Structures are given as C-alpha cells and as structure tokens.
Amino acid sequence: MKIILVTGGSGLVGRAIQSVIEHDRREDEKWIFVGSKDADLCDKESTRKLFDQHRPTHVIHLAAMVGGLFHNMSHNLDFLVNI
C-alpha cells in the first residue's frame, strides 16, 4: 500500500489535491493531509514524530510560510529539514 503524506494539506493547493483525491482515490493508496497544527516542520523532532506516526512511502511537500503564494514568492525563503 502507498501512504502519501501531503504537508501543507490545509492550504490552497493541498485542499485542491484533497478534492481531486476524494473523487478519484485508488484502493491501494492512503492519503494523509497535514497542516501546521499537526507538526512544526522547522523542528526536527516534531517532523520525526510526524513521519514515525504515519510512515509515508511518498511525500508531497506543499508546506510554506503562512501568507499566501505571493508573500512567499516575494520573500526569498529557504527551508531545510534535516531528518
């Protein structure tokens, strides 16, 4: 079974993917959508706990700083999570 973890699952793109998946889900897939309330991805231990809890086989990383697409594009942001 594929376990797909979507970070930023409560954001614009995450919600759009969730909507598509609700209508076209495959039986061999489990989709997990998480938001900032579920884990602090800037914190190594919080991230490790999230991955230990869900054991994803695939990750779609959409998490971004709150403020929207244009805010993030206008700020030269780099995120690095060491796992």
From TrEMBL:
It holds the Pfam family Epimerase. Gene3D superfamilies: NAD(P)-binding Rossmann-like Domain (3.40.50.720). Transmembrane segments: none annotated. GO terms for molecular function: GDP-L-fucose synthase activity. It comes from the Eukaryota. Residues 4-80 form the NAD-dependent epimerase/dehydratase domain. Coiled coil: none annotated. This is Probable GDP-L-fucose synthetase. It comes from Camponotus floridanus. The lineage of its organism: Eukaryota, Metazoa, Ecdysozoa, Arthropoda, Hexapoda.
